[in-house]
DNA sequence: TACCCGTGGAT
DNA sequence: TATCCAAGGGT
């Protein structure tokens, strides 16, 4: 038993937390049952993503891929399309890869040991503990940002929660702290408390079911905890993009690389611009080099900003045209698309904005045109 | 370990 | 407006 838990009334804390969760939990789509697949999908979607954002995606995803098998046998592009706009797209590719692994190596049954489930792509320490406790009632810790915030306050811990090592400290404490009778409600209770009461700013201590256990409240320092190192500012990057139209009114899109930022999503051809250079010239050269197309780069249309957690794109969009309907070399994956087929491709948000801002249907059969 | 990997809502 | 951040994982 850690020194931190000396003089801490574990059993009463467990009871107060589990009782509160039993009476106050939100009814959410992934709480309808304990199907490990449903719990799994929800935990992946909820990574770094708010509940209100996830709900509609989760419901649509479950209609489209109701079982582990339907997801395993789906086309990857359909999974990415279902994830479009949710962000962190490697989650979607890793989830499908892991689901296929479960079908092939575990007979379609989600493994129920930490050792095995942790081998699955995209299942880290938190997600493993969440699935094991919620779907399989195992007393395994599930340490997310909520849990670290709540326990930093309750136990008055001043370690920097931005450090990975601090998470392991909480995990070791939780093996002693977690309710062995109801690990599911205990873990969900910690997270629900963090989401609804023990919030980052102005925590609702007067409503808190474990206030009597809380060392930070007793000391009046709940607003000063948890300790968290500040993030660095994202770096800005200037891009120029082309909406290249052929004589059938179709536009050219290309697929991003298999790894890295926005992997496997589609986009309009674009290139980084060094500030001193002429945008139209650079774009025309780039299109010629990459696609062997002689494009007439025309008017500047608009600017789209795309803010990532670590990067900011400022994209200046230009119109361009090519004669005829040139065939595309197969060195890069690219397509001519019209308004009927563009909906089948998954785009990052910045390029959805380009579509919405610059391309609109001109009739009910084919073609786009510039707005404004 | 520190950095990469999205997005949109809250303050 | 700027900053933070929300049920993290991979490398």
From TrEMBL:
Q: Which family does it belong to?
A: Belongs to the Nth/MutY family.
| Record-level GO BP terms | base-excision repair; mismatch repair
> What molecular functions are annotated in GO for this chain?
4 iron, 4 sulfur cluster binding; 8-oxo-7,8-dihydroguanine DNA N-glycosylase activity; adenine/guanine mispair binding; metal ion binding; oxidized purine DNA binding; purine-specific mismatch base pair DNA N-glycosylase activity
Cofactor(s) the protein needs: [4Fe-4S] cluster
Listed A to Z, the keywords are:
4Fe-4S, DNA damage, DNA repair, Glycosidase, Hydrolase, Iron, Iron-sulfur, Metal-binding
Question: Per its record, how is this protein called by name?
Answer: Adenine DNA glycosylase
Q: Name one Pfam family in it.
A: HHH
Record-listed E.C. numbers: 3.2.2.31
The cross-references to InterPro entries, in alphabetical order and at most eight, read:
A/G_AdeGlyc_MutY (IPR005760), DNA_glycosylase (IPR011257), Endonuclease3_FeS-loop_motif (IPR003651), Endouclease-III_FeS-bd_BS (IPR004035), HhH-GPD_domain (IPR003265), HhH_base_excis_C (IPR023170), HhH_motif (IPR000445), MIG/MutY (IPR044298)
Q: Which SUPFAM superfamilies match?
A: DNA-glycosylase (SSF48150), Nudix (SSF55811)
Query: Is DNA damage there in the keyword field?
Result: yes
This entry's comment on the bound cofactor is: Binds 1 [4Fe-4S] cluster.
Reaction catalysed by this enzyme:
Hydrolyzes free adenine bases from 7,8-dihydro-8-oxoguanine:adenine mismatched double-stranded DNA, leaving an apurinic site
UniProt-listed Gene3D superfamilies? Helix-hairpin-Helix base-excision DNA repair enzymes (C-terminal) (1.10.1670.10), Hypothetical protein, domain 2 (1.10.340.30), Nucleoside Triphosphate Pyrophosphohydrolase (3.90.79.10)
Which top-rank group of organisms is this from?
A: Bacteria
**What is the stated purpose of this protein?**
Adenine glycosylase active on G-A mispairs. MutY also corrects error-prone DNA synthesis past GO lesions which are due to the oxidatively damaged form of guanine: 7,8-dihydro-8-oxoguanine (8-oxo-dGTP).
Parts of the chain that traverse the membrane: none
EC main group: hydrolase
Keyword RNA-binding attached: no
Show where the HhH-GPD domain sits. Answer: 45-196
């Amino acid at each position: 038993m850690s020194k931190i838990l000396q003089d801490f009334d574990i059993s009463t804390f467990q009871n107060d937390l589990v009782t509160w969760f039993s009476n106050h939990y939100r009814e959410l789509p992934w709480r309808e049952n304990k199907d490990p697949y449903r719990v799994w999908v929800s935990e992946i979607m909820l990574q770094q993503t708010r509940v209100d954002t996830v709900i509609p995606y989760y419901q649509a995803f479950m209609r489209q891929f109701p079982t582990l098998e339907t997801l395993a046998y789906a086309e990857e592009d359909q999974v990415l399309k279902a994830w479009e706009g949710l962000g962190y797209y490697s989650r979607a590719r890793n989830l499908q890869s892991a689901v296929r692994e479960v079908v092939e190596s575990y007979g379609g049954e989600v493994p129920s040991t930490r050792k095995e489930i942790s081998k699955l792509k995209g299942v880290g320490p938190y997600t493993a503990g969440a699935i094991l406790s919620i779907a399989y009632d195992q007393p395994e810790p599930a340490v997310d940002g909520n849990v670290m915030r709540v326990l930093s306050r309750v136990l008055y811990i001043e370690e920097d929660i931005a450090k990975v090592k601090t998470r392991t400290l909480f995990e070791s404490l939780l093996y002693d702290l977690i309710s062995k009778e109801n690990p599911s409600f205990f873990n969900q209770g910690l997270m629900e408390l963090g989401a609804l009461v023990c919030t980052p700013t102005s925590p609702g201590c007067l409503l808190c079911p474990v206030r009597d256990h809380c060392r930070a409240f007793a000391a009046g320092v709940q607003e000063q905890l948890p300790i968290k190192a500040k993030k660095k500012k994202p770096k800005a990057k200037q891009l120029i993009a082309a909406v290249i139209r052929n004589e059938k009114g179709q536009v050219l899109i290309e697929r991003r690389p298999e790894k890295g930022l926005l992997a496997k999503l589609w986009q309009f051809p674009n290139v980084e611009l060094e500030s001193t250079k002429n945008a139209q010239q650079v774009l025309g050269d780039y299109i010629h080099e990459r696609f062997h197309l002689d494009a007439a780069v025309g008017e500047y249309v608009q600017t789209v900003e795309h803010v990532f957690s670590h990067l900011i794109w400022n994209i200046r969009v230009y119109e361009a045209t090519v004669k005829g309907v040139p065939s595309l070399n197969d060195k890069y994956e690219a397509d001519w698309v019209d308004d009927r087929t563009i909906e089948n491709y998954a785009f990052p948000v910045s390029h959805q904005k380009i579509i919405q801002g610059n391309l609109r249907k001109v009739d009910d059969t084919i073609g786009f045109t510039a707005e404004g």
